Amino acid sequence: MQTDSSSVFITGATGFIGQRLVSCLLEQGHAVRAMVRPEKKSSSQIPLACEQIPVGLTDVDKLTGIVAESKAVIYCAGSVRGRNLTDFSVANIQGIQALIDASERASNAPPLLLVSSLAASQPQLSDYARSKNAGEQLLLGKPLLPWTIIRPPAVYGPGDQDMLRVLKMVRRGLLLHAGPRDQHVSLLHVDDLASAVVAWLLASQCCRHKTYAIDDGTPGGYTWDAIGEAVSKKKLRALKLPRLSMDIVATANVLFSKLLGYAPMFSPGKVRELIQPEWLCDNSSFTDATGWKPQLDLKQGAERLFKPD
Ligand SMILES: NC(=O)c1ccc[n+]([C@@H]2O[C@H](COP(=O)([O-])OP(=O)(O)OC[C@H]3O[C@@H](n4cnc5c(N)ncnc54)[C@H](OP(=O)(O)O)[C@@H]3O)[C@@H](O)[C@H]2O)c1
Q1: Beta strand residue intervals within the chain, DSSP E
Q2: If you take atom 47 of ligand 1, which residue's CA is the nearest one?
Q3: Measured between alpha carbons, how far is 124 from 256 in angstroms, rounded to an integer?
Q4: For position 309, what pLDDT does the model report?
Q5: Which of 188, 183, 185, 198 is nearest to 156 (CA)?
Q6: What is the 234 CA–ligand 1 centroid distance (Å)?
Q7: Is the backbone of residue 45 left (phi > 0), alpha (psi -120 to 50) or beta?
Q8: DSSP state of 256
Q9: Any idea where the domains of the chain sit in the sequence?
Q10: Which has fewest Cβ within 10 Å: 10, 41, 77, 297?
């Protein structure tokens, strides 16, 4: 195991965003150590060049040593599926508390980046949003730790399934939307999120104690028609999903998830998130602090995503 303080420690490295972050950090010449669940011991989703550390997300004792040996810590673990706040709590709240405890125990805590979510700005909408907000609150109460929070909007790119389903439908010419057709949503390609994290790493001093909501730089985000125009060359048919049907399906999904023992993505809380009129970001303060600029708007991101078509 490496023991110098030259590596970046990352949680959530096996996930959609975490995998891209690890690759990007390695490409930029950073040594990376990735947390894997102790019961898994190692993961094939993590590149060989990255050291894998089996450690529980809430194992403060072990985390203390790891944090003390790292030049930076990126918390990218998270639960995006669940029935209630308890389901979201371990990855979105308790793991952050454990990392705070570990950082406070380690002398000279390294910079810590929390990959939160734009949903944290609307905690009343869902248990997911509430858990992301609660995770952020833990850091806000720690002025002595060198933390930064990034709130991405919906992130898409290779390896993601959720946004891909929506974008594939739009590509075929079907705009199936839950919110209003003139809803304004910010989006971000996962490669741009990864480059933002690399930019943070180089300028973390300037980002201390700041919360940034960053997107692909499209002013006002995207309406459904703008998404259609960016993603598809076909004539578009729009279909608004009725709120009542969504609520019925979401409630049934949560009930089935209890019976069958899976973690549901589509829940009444998710419906409330989906119909929000606006989910918007603003890059200006993060760009001022780090020099980062996104490279891919949705048209370019979709071209990259659907390249083999
Ligand atoms: N995807 C988006 O559009 C989006 C947008 C905004 C914010 N975010 C945030 O970005 C973060 C990553 O999202 P993602 O889309 O990459 O999610 P993901 O693909 O579901 O990955 C989640 C990661 O967290 C780890 N994890 C979850 N629970 C854990 C636990 N109890 N112990 C240890 N590890 C645990 C998973 O490990 P295993 O592989 O071992 O399960 C995985 O590495 C999340 O915090 C999410 O809220 C995502």
Answers
A1: 7-11, 31-36, 51-54, 70-75, 112-115, 147-151, 154-156, 174-177, 184-185, 187-189, 210-213, 237-240, 278-279
A2: 78
A3: 24
A4: 53
A5: 188
A6: 34
A7: alpha
A8: H
A9: 7-154+188-215+281-294
A10: 41
Mutating to test ligand 1, I would choose from 76, 89, 116, 185 the residue with most ligand atoms within 8 A of its C-beta, which is 76
Give the number of the atom of ligand 1 that is nearest the alpha carbon of residue 81.
20
A 10 A CB-CB count for 95 gives 24
Rounded distance from Cα 14 to ligand 1 centre (Å): 8
- Give the tokens for residue 236: 């578009």
CA dihedral 36, 46, 203, 105 (to 10 degrees): 20
pLDDT of residue 38: 93
Fold of 7-154+188-215+281-294: Rossmann fold (3.40.50)
Q: Is the pLDDT of residue 174 over 80?
A: yes
| H-run or E-run covering 26 | helix 16-27
| Residue position matching structure tokens 């979201």 | 88
Backbone angles phi, psi at 156, to 5 degrees: -130, 165
In the chain, the amino acid numbered 188 is L
Ligand 1: distance of its center to the CA of 80 in Å?
A: 7
- List, in sequence order, every residue forming a beta bridge with 177; answer none if it has no partner: 240
The full DSSP string for 190-221 is HHHHHHHHHHHHHTGGGGTTEEEE--S--TT-
For ligand 1, atom 32, the nearest C-alpha belongs to: 57
Task: Using only the alpha carbons of the chain, give its radius of gyration.
Answer: 19
Instruction: State the pTM of this model.
Output: 0.96
Please name the amino acid found at residue 298: L
